Amino acid sequence: MTSRRSAPAFAIIALLVAACGPKEKAFKIAVAVPLTGDMGTEGQGLRRAVEMAVEEANTAQRFPYKLAAVPFDDRADPKEAVNVANLIISDPRIIAVVGHYNSGCAIPAAKVYARAPVAMISPAATNPEVTAQQLSPDWIGPKMVFRVVPTDDVQGAYAAEFTYRKLGKRRMSLLHDKTPYGQGLAEQFKKTFLQLGGDIVTEDGVAVGDKDFKALLTKIKGSVKKTEGLYFGGLYTEAGLLLKQMRELDMKDPFVFISGDGSKTSGLFEVAGESADGAYLSIVGVPVEDLPSAAKFMADYKKRWTGSGEELKPFDHFGYEAARIIFAAMEKGATNRAQMIEELRKTDFTGALGLTRFDAKGDTLNKIVTMTRAKSKGRSFDSIR
Amino acid sequence: MLAQQILNALTLGAIYSLIALGYTLVYGILAMINFAHSEVLMLGAFTALGLATFAPAAFGSGPSALAAMFVAGMAAAGLVNVVVERFAYRPLRAVSRLAPLISAIGVSIVLQNGVFLWISTQSLSFPRPVVIGQISLFGASVSSLQLVILGAALGLMGLLHFFVESTKMGKAMRACADDISTAGLMGIDADRVIAVTFFVGGALGGAAGVLYGMNYGSIKYNLGFLPGAKAFTAAVLGGIGNIRGAVLGGFILGLLEVLACGYIPDGAQWRDVIAFTVLIVVLLVRPSGLLGEKMAEKV
Predict the structure, then answer these.
(1) Which of A73, A177, A222, B14 could disulfide-link A234, Cβ–Cβ 3.0 to 4.6 Å?
(2) pTM of the shown model
(3) Alpha carbon of A56 to those of A89, A90, A299, A327, A347: distances in Å?
(4) What is the ipTM of this complex?
(5) What is the pLDDT of residues A248-271, one digit of tens each?
(6) Is B277 within a domain?
């Protein structure tokens, strides 16, 4: 029964598709981010931002075809990111990828996308290697990696200048979580801090998932050359535990804790509570609240996402912008993967982040870094000017 | 600095020891490794958090709240362990040595994913009902939390010692550990003794879970894995099946980790390697662990 009734329907659909040609196809944009696990909250925020951008484009009927955002969960795990990337390239209707969140995931996944090739715009991965790997002679495929966030070399260097000039610290301890992101941040911090004339007193690595840093912190505290602060390259879980245990060891003001954007999320307060007070966290770009160009995005976001836990996350505006840059390329006529890569290279887009253009590697030329300070009351990060 | 490091080691060691006791008690009686123990301690921590979140009125604050969290965490963890034993291990006990082991791994996965899917995939903030003050002692800054952890752990170990050595049930447990079938012939209800052992082991794990949560300030569905693995190591180091050995092993492991981290250059990255290398060396010299006796093969 069913088959007989659906047969004419299929014929009609087939006719329609044939009549309308390739322009009438629905296009998909993959959102490859961690949707579960430690980084899940940030990934879910990015998914919401891209979905919102897609909904807006569909409602405004910007294109003669339908758009859809398809989320993929890389669980912040490089192995899973590669699996997800393989799934993505095998779906011919996916025209571009917004992702990945972690540098550790973006680096191997980009190699898979290059084989297709399909363009990838990362809204959050800040390790220089994400785009720099395309310059290596082993790179197979065209240059198709783009990113709308400034990189760690900007962030780490900015933090070092801030520590040296604004905070007046000369002797710092260095700690990172051995991931491409964390180590990248720490190395850039070290380079600039030494150039400025500062001294790195201790340097250690920890493992993601470690809980007990007391022994290490005691060692840092007792270092012969009195250290004046700690720079940590890593994510909020470890940063929160570090802060908590630092305070318990009486390492507080004027001893400073400085870290990067991976720790600047409300999750930090979940882990560290009041111990987070006074921590300095650099972020790429300007906090979305301070960006006049992002005011409309923020208002729309709050209207669209009202559930609990659906508040704006730190990278959402980058995700939104990445999606809109893809739309701009489609508007200029990109209707397949190769044209998309071509058009993205020529991007000249003014949106929520201000003006975005890409350099030869695919990195944004819009490179601002802001330092913020954590305040547990109200769970806010106030920017320092 | 040394004083501070030793204090750090004691806190870490106390938590390892409490968890190690759970492994060793079960092993002592059944010669079986309860791989679900790490999840039992995680559930203890989550129960205490649930109590603090959903019944703050009954929960109060200050020392009474602390006591309530311990009681809730220990009771829940103990009961979970008993239920697991009854339904996942007991039916398999007669089948083979390997079957309950696999069953334990299964239970561990089920419990961990249950919390992951139904409760939270994220780190949850864990309350500290007592105000954390700090005092300076021999140049080390001692927090009241560390005193709570050490006090609770040592107190529970003392209670366990009393229970095993001086009560009738403890005597029955020792008899079962010696030879479970002979103990049964002497009129000891082995099933009941085993259930009690699982309850006691689980409750100690639950207490460790609560201490763990308070020490690190946040808990997550997979929090049991790492301390569970370390505590299991500690139990083997001390001589699995031996109660004093588990305590000794826990403290030694804590000390090794802290010293590796504090005094060896780049030690933070190598601390597990160092701790486990020492374990291997100890086992090469004393295969049954530091305090373990050479056991006759049970037939």
Answers:
(1) A177
(2) 0.76
(3) 25, 27, 14, 11, 20
(4) 0.77
(5) 888 888 899 999 988 988 889 988
(6) no
